[in-house]
Amino acid sequence: MGSGSTYPVEKCPANNKVPIRHRCVVCGYEADLRPSNVIGNAKRGRRTCDGCNHRNGTSLEDARRLFAKKNPDCIPLEGFKTQKDKVKFECVKCGHMWETRPCYLLLDGPGRAGCPKCACESCNRKTQEKFEEEVKAVNPNIKVIGKYVNSKTNIRVKHIPCGYEWEANPRGLLEKRSCPKCRENVKKSNGQRKTHEQFLAEMKEKHPDMKVLSKYISNKTKVKVKHLPCGREFEMSPGSLLAGRGCSVCNRKQRIMNSRKTHSQFIEEMQQIHPDIEVLSEYINSKSKVKVRHIPCQHEWMAAPNKLLTGRGCPKCNKLPKLTDDEYKKKLEENNIIYIPLAPVQNIDTKIPHLCPECNMTWDITPYNILFGYGCPRCRGNRQSYEEVIDDLHKSAPTLLIIDEYSGKNTRALFKCLECGHEWRATPYAVLHGAGCPKCVRKKSFPEISVYYFLDRDLEYEVLLNPRINIPHLEIKFEADVFIPELKLFVEYDGIYWHSTPRVEQRDIKREEAIYAVGYKCMHIREYNDIDEQRKSWLKEPPLLITAANHREDSEALDQCILDLETKLGIATNKPVDCLSNKVAIEEAYKNAPVYNITILENGDMEVKHNGK
User: Of 95, 121, 147, which residue constitutes the final position of a domain?
Assistant: First the structure.
């Protein structure tokens, strides 16, 4: 399958878009090339070998022909490999020879370089004597003291009548600019400077809620003011105050209040997520608890708005088991946590005293923070040696290898995953307390991986889970939910909470336009039946949209949704779809799914790579 001077040294795959090793028979250069590119270059008469392309460069004849068109005043005396290599040139006008880079002489426009000798002769720089004569003719009261360099470099001068010296711009002196000290005195005598009383009058009109505490000097000299509503004192320039700036603390609070969600907005979001929960108290912010009532059971409780909006419901109906003392102690043993609780566990978010057996310190901390990895505040200051940290890391994470030198538990170091070879930076503290390889450990929703599991089981084509998609010419990168390369089809599972936010909605619109721009399609699965009109307006193919009831309330709705999806794809199978019964198999398939990186080119072709997991 060789083409021209390049032939493959590996077995050719069935797909001519998979790169394989090629060798050039002319120079022996080897590179990974796609067979389709090698054949295409041969048909177009192009060189396939990058080594030959680099070595050939530009000959002397080609270089002179190029400069005759671009820059006829400069003649190259030798050829060059690249335009950044220095070569000798000769000036046609003066015969001067010098070395420079061809790229400087081939620029278009006024930035193009030329002969340095001709440039110096045409400069005609002004001398010291000539500049002093011009200054004396324009302003005889100014004496030049410093050395003249050019029209932009300041020079020291002296005003003879008052004896004041300053650094002046040469161009300004020739434009009849006078002594700045005398000019300031003239302003004072004419009453041009703003008085303190005038500044107070302007401040009263602009900022009636501020009190000036220091004397006004100039527009740029800071004055001390007091903001009466909050009592804060600070310094600011009069120009900034009169331009509208005020107390930064109050302005920040006002910006936060303006961007904060209103009570009516919170009620609308609650109606979408929890239509059976009634809000009884006023909404303040996402963390301040509000009183709510579950209408079916009439149970009332205090809950954080952000917890409610992420799916948490009535604790009485859910009947969540309370964390007992025995269960908490068992979890401490399973996670090799040495701390001893000294009081009964009330709940996972209520602080109770704990004892550290190493230093005998007692402190209050929540069971959640203990299980999450927070430890004794006194022992935290005892620094471990590099060998001790390596031993601890090997025990807690045997598949991870630390590459950098240990600089502290909270200082990021370079880690390598021995399973997939991925390298990333993380703190040893995080790794010691359960953090793993971000490429291997991926957290996705159960409905999403259920769709992947059944499509992979019933479809004859390859199905990819969470491939990382890159469309370079459109500058779009995203992680898809499910992708079927043979059908050029994406399947996106849109959650009711996450995909209903305006920011994510705009991201989905850009993603949808990019997918269809390269000739691919996208099918959507929604958690609810009612699709708003705005959502319908930007979907490229509304008939491909599949709707389903909330899977949290009815697991059969998710099963029916997957069956509808397979019907639209033309899959005929007698195998049942039951997500709950196949939960273990679904999670196992998710863990073993490889991570794919797919680049979609402008013509719709794909370059597929994966980590071999």
Answer: 121
- Cα 215–chain centre separation: 47
- Cβ contacts of residue 179 below 8 Å, gap of 6+? 141, 142, 159, 161, 162, 164, 166
For residues 451-460, average pLDDT: 85
Tokens of 566: 């397979």
Query: Lowest-confidence range among 350-359, 430-439, 486-495?
Result: 430-439
What mean pLDDT do residues 143-156 have?
A: 88
Q: At what angle do helices 446-458 and 555-568 cross, to 10 degrees?
A: 40
Whether residue 39 is contained in a domain is answered as yes
Q: What is the mean pLDDT of residues 48-71?
A: 75
Which range (77-81, 200-204, 308-312, 556-560) has the least confidence?
556-560
Co-location of 111 and 209 in the same domain: no
Shared domain check, 594 and 494: yes
Q: What is the 3-state secondary structure (H, E, C) of 51-67?
A: HHHHHHCECHHHHHHHH
Within 8 A by CB and 6+ apart from 400, the residues are 393, 415, 416, 417, 418, 431, 436, 437
- Could you tell me the residue range of the domain that residue 522 belongs to? 446-610
What are the tens digits of pLDDT across the range 203-238? Answer: 988 899 999 999 998 888 899 999 999 999 999 999
- Do 136 and 81 lie in one domain? The reply is no
- Do 292 and 208 lie in a common domain? no
Q: Is 363 contained in some domain? A: no
Residues 66 and 86 in one domain: yes
Place of tokens 């007698």: 574
